[in-house]
Amino acid sequence: MVSDGPLLVVGRLTGSLRDDMPDVFFLCDLTHPTDGHGLVYPQEDPRKGTQAFVAPREIHACLNPADAVTGKHWAIAELELAPPNVREQRNNPHECNVRAGTLRLLSALPQEWKVELRGPDEARLIAAFARDEIEAAVRAEILRDSRELVDQEEKNRQHRLRIAAELQAARYHADEQIAKFEEQIAEGKRSRDAVNGEVQELQELLAEENERLKELRLKAEQERNIMEERYRKLEELLTEKGGRLVALGLIDEEDLAFVLPKAPQDQGARGESLEQALGGDIARLAPWLQARLARSGLLYSQDQLRNFVTLLRTRDLVVLAGDSGSGKTSLVRAVAEAVGGTCAIIPVKPNWTGPEDLLGYYNPIERSYHPTPFLLALQAAARAPDVPYFICLDEMNLARVEHYFADFLSLLESRGHRPEIHLYTADEERHLAMEHGVFLELEAEARRRADLDEAATLEQILTNDIANNALHQLGGFRDAESVLVHHGRLRRALSAHMRMPTSLKFPENVWIFGAVNMDETTHHLSPKVLDRVHVLRFNNPMLADWDKIEAEISDVTENPEINLGLTPNDIGSRAEYPPFDRRNDAASFLAGLARDHLDPLGVEFGMRAVRQSLGYLAAAELTGIDPDKALDNIVRQKILPKIALDTSRPTADGRKRRDVLLSLREALAERLGPPEVAPGEGNSVGDLDRLIALADGSNKVANFWMR
User: Fold this and answer.
1) Are residues 273 and 164 in the same domain?
2) Are residues 407 and 521 both part of a single domain?
3) Contact call for residues 37 and 31 (beta carbons, < 8 A)
4) Do 383 and 446 fall into the same domain?
5) Which residues contact 612 (CB under 8 A, 6 or more apart)?
6) Dihedral over Cα of 550, 339, 273, 282: its sign
7) According to the model, what pLDDT value does residue 677 have?
8) Which residue range(s) make up the domain with 687?
9) 387 and 348 share a domain?
10) Residue 282 belongs to some domain of the structure
11) One domain for residues 203 and 255
12) Of 62, 279, 369, 399, which is the most exposed, with the fewest CB atoms less than 10 Å away?
């Protein structure tokens, strides 16, 4: 048989495992997949099966070696001639081996593959890499188990939006697969009937998921109605009990309003959603922001804004680095306002030394919690769960970040659930509830004896002889002053506890930013901090290419006059980072940088950082950033900020650290292209060139933060 391309065969895997020698594996009973003819070497008996050697690494890539020698597994592969010495040794000039990287397991063969199966196998097989790859990729996105709906409205909304996003991703993936099938048909690689069948199955699967989404929406609407009814009943209960507390002067109307449940807010009153304004396409947000911010005199390139939107979507902590006046806090504030959110700028003081400076502390003498502006901002965000809330720690490194922020940083590593911030012990709350309950029971009995109604105030009780005597007798009070002192103490404690619970769950609608400026008055960020954040560096706006930015703005087709009211889930929701898969190209590249270049330099870049980077890449794909550009952003934001070393010192294996830096530079240039040194833009290769040049001219110290 003569073929212009590689010889494709189907065969049964077999071999043997040997203790004293390397394991050997073969693909036996070779058959042509399309015409069903058995394949034999010309000089061999055609009744005997022909076999081809399989390299052990090919087996390890797809199957357990112990299973590979059972003879129960079938595979498809391309063949190539064995090396000349092997053919000479086997006295077979046609001896073939399995071509590296082509071995694939089979689970069913299409009907047009006329393969004669030898042995007890009777089932038809189809290629796993053809069918499973399609179905697994779609189902992995569509059929992902959703977390159970909780009894809060915000969770119900998040669940609906997540299902909608998964369905949109599935449709996008299906469109890609359909387009790929059409290309393959045009090239003659697949039969039209087979492709149409798979496309039809895929469309049926999407139709089923559409029905499933409709059912989920209906269920969510029913649960919303139930939740609103619970809100109403809870409000009635708190209003009834709270009214008595207000009448007694133990709390004010403002205290009562603070704890009353808030009904879900109508989003239409805030502005248009992402779906309404931009068709649900997050990639259209950056151009719209560029045009919108330009109206206020804020000029940012589209690359900057796409990167910022991508960082928002990851829900990671972002450190904005740059000189004063470079537009760090202005960007955070302007974007928050543009999307219909709220921004709180919290100045960091140089004397902050612990978590109490960030979150506040409990005063046992006053029996109240002293909150900080940061904690009050978290509370304000929790009271408006539908509104994006940006909190920026300004001059974050005036104090040592690892001292006051480390506990909070570790707390936010929880991605699968909302972390809980514990403020003080619940014992104080229980003591107050008991003391307050006793007082209410006493005053209720005093009113009953004096025949006073529910609206009676403390003044009316004390001025009524019967009620006053009963209250003193029941409570052991000797005079009116004791009652007032007790009442005042209860009032202060109760008001404080109503406004400050013992713990607070981190609101889903909060993004945390930190603005830093590196000079002699500030502290450097520790490796623990850098390992968990993205560093977004700002250059002097005077160096920006304003003509290019204005040209980009003139090409924007989005209407900057639209008033957006994005929900937190429109921007991005917190989720676990993607798992590490060494077969993923980006993961493999980053792992190679860590192993071959960063570790010899003493720069840590571990599993957390790689998985966080993969999360950024997934978000960048949706926001319209080119994959190589997104990978370049990761190097600039996650790797280069960690470089602070003496290039004159050797590495552990004796190499010069400058040489290792140069090898890192070459690896980046090979993957990401030559250096870019455009003002305000650039790439990681250009940044590394600048870093090495500065090190050569300043005592051989290479430091990302050096100017």
Assistant:
1) no
2) yes
3) yes
4) no
5) 314, 316, 532, 577, 638
6) positive
7) 61
8) 577-703
9) yes
10) yes
11) yes
12) 279
275 in any annotated domain: yes
Q: How far is CA 597 from the centre of its chain?
A: 27
The pLDDT score that the predictor gives to residue 422 is 84
Q: Is residue 411 part of a domain?
A: yes
Environment class of residue 572 by beta-carbon count within 10 Å: exposed (0-12), middle (13-18) or buried (19+)?
A: buried
Structure tokens at 531: 């390992």
Which tokens go with 657?
A: 């650290």
CB 508 within 8 A of CB 418: yes
Q: Specify whether 536 is located in the same domain as 490.
A: no
Which residue type, as a one-letter code, is found at position 129? Answer: F
Helix (H, G, I), strand (E, B) or coil at 404: helix
Alpha-carbon span 374 to 360, nearest angstrom:
9
For residue 266, the one-letter residue type is D
Rounded average pLDDT per 10-residue block, the chain, 707 residues: 69 85 86 75 65 89 85 87 88 89 73 47 40 42 43 60 67 66 61 67 74 71 62 52 64 61 56 90 94 91 94 95 86 95 96 92 78 92 93 95 87 82 70 65 77 78 78 68 68 65 87 91 90 89 81 89 92 90 92 93 92 95 94 95 91 90 94 72 87 87 86
Cβ-based neighbours of 684, under 8 Å, separated by 6 or more: 632, 635, 636, 639, 640, 668, 672
Determine contact, residues 422/502, Cβ cutoff 8 Å.
yes
Tokens describing residue 113: 């593959």
Please indicate, yes or no, whether residues 180 and 241 belong to a single structural domain of this protein.
yes
User: Are the CB atoms for 458 and 248 separated by under 8 Å?
Assistant: yes
**Given this model, what pLDDT does residue 128 score?**
40
Structure tokens at 160: 């609906």
Q: Number of helices (H) and strands (E), helices first, in the chain?
A: 28, 18
Tokens 């493999």, located at residue: 588
DSSP for 457-523, written as a single string = -HHHHHHSHHHHHHHHHHHT--SHHHHHHHHHHHHHHHHHHHHS-SEEEPPTTEEEEEEE--STTS-
Give me the helix-helix angle, 128-142 and 192-247, nearest 10°: 20
The structure tokens listed for 218 are 């209906």
Domain count, the chain: 5
Question: What CATH number is given to the structural domain containing 410?
Answer: 3.40.50.300
Tokens standing for 13? 């895997």
3-state secondary structure of 71: coil
Contact in structure between 338 and 533 (CB atoms under 8 Å): no
428 within 8 A of 365, measured Cβ to Cβ: no
Last residue of a domain, one of 106, 124, 142: 124
Residue 255: count of CB within 10 angstroms of its CB: 19
The span from the CA of 280 to the CA of 283, in Å, is 9
Q: How far is CA 407 from the centre of its chain?
A: 20
The domain boundary, picked from 79, 99, 124, lies at: 124
* Residue tagged 């290039």 (tokens): 647
Quick check: is 645 in a domain?
yes
pLDDT of residue 61: 83
Distance CA 605, CA 591 (A): 8
- Indicate whether 60 and 191 sit together in one domain: no
- 534 sits in which H/E element: strand 533-537
Task: Please choose, from the candidates 462, 413, 186, the residue with its C-alpha nearest in 3D space to the C-alpha of residue 315.
Answer: 413
